[in-house]
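Same chain as my last thread, 132 residues:
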Amino acid sequence: MEITISINGRFVSVEVSTEVADYLEQAKRNNRKLYRERQRYWDGRECDEYIIATEGRLPYCATPEELVCQRETLDEILAVLALCSDTQLERFLLYALYDFSYAEIAEVCGCTKGSVQTSINAVRKTFQKFWK
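reply #2:
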């Protein structure tokens, strides 16, 4: 999506993602609402300070730089997980994402607790090698 911004009085067209455009549009709408709220009570009487305090801040949205960093980190994690065997991957995900114990994973997979621990440690070592 293309947007136009003003830099030192000059208007420049910039190509941005839809998420960034939506974020900027929401910020613009909130600024208009705040302006109208202040204009309605220009002399300060009965101005709803709660509206100004709550609407003056947008809910947290990641900046474009943070989104890029998150995407790069996710790509790195997926690259490491692609290096693991299917068995290691299954056991590691049950442990890391679903918070299963070694005994529960062993019961689900039909193996020993020691083999589950070995698989999870192998994935951890793969991560450590990748990030060194």
